Amino acid sequence: MTDTIPQVTLKPLTWTPHLPPVEIEDATPRQLEAMKVTPSAKKVSPYVRTLAHDPDSYVARTVLFNAIMYAEGGLNRADRELGALGASLINGCKYCANVHARQHARLTGTATTSALFAGRRDALNPRDAAIMDFAEALTATPPTADQSHVEALRAQGMEDAEIQDLIHSIAIFGWANRLMHPLGHSD
Amino acid sequence: MTAVPDAIDQALGIAPGSPLHALRALRPEFVSGAEACRAAVLHPEETLDLSPELRRALARRVVAWAGHDRLTDGYPRPADPALAALADGEMPEDPALAALARHADLIAATPAKAGPEHLSALQEAGFSVPQIIALSELLAFACYQIRVVHGLGLLKETRA
Prior knowledge:
The complex is a heterodimer. By secondary structure, chain A is mainly alpha-helical. Chain A has helices spanning 29-35, 46-51, 55-70, 77-90, 94-108, 111-117, 126-139, 147-155, 160-183; strands at residues 15-17, 184-186. Chain A is globular and about 55 Å long. Chains A and B meet through helix 3, helix 8 and helix 9 of A and helix 3, helix 7, helix 8 and helix 9 of B.
């Protein structure tokens, strides 16, 4: 195929909560402590302040999220981002899809995300296609992922330890998407 | 690595010595992280007036969508009839529990369709903003568990 897909550069979106977030001046000591658990703590985003209403789950989830997306070794970062993107597209989380498409593009260039946003699944390389197929099937309710998906990933040279990382990056967006999308809107 | 099997080991039916258990042990931070999350959504320090019984019933309703029996069994069926209806996927008579049941099904099965009107429905049913956030985390955690258990289950015949 010689046709070319226009390369898109996605602009960041802004997320606005449907429910009133915690205001810093009203925050309890535990909420204040919880809100520090962010990669860059300079400014506390409306998202963090919304979820800080329940400090226990916020802290625990953030620790797990960071382990899954940033742990050393194993599956490369771009493939984790693609798993996150696949889940976010199925779950209808525009904001998460935008963030993780941009992360993927930053790591490996815009070819894959441009193809996806143009609806050109046929233009994905075989590894990305296997990852997207698996992400979609695992994200479905109930999940429809089966042995054939795992075999397709293995055929692309993925070790089981890497597939385990991919499973977790898809699963953690089965969680994050169900917060970000239902609790707010983005534009 | 802990000697006690965690909720995901139990749902997968695996024990130390199995290849899948060894695979999980490569990522101890995923194992301990998920257990910490489970504790945080089921019995947090700040309960926000949501009982552990209600939380477990709701989690059982959500994980049942996946049909992995051992995962569902991780959330024992409540003795209380109203909570049992919630846990069993029925529509509870209590209006607040019914609102919760409807929201749980929406989030579990069709999260893309969720909108602000669904949060308003929970508020009208009497749930506070912090309670809605805590319940959202709980529902979404159960959805995370579904994917981890389903995905890792596919690696059971893991290669050396």
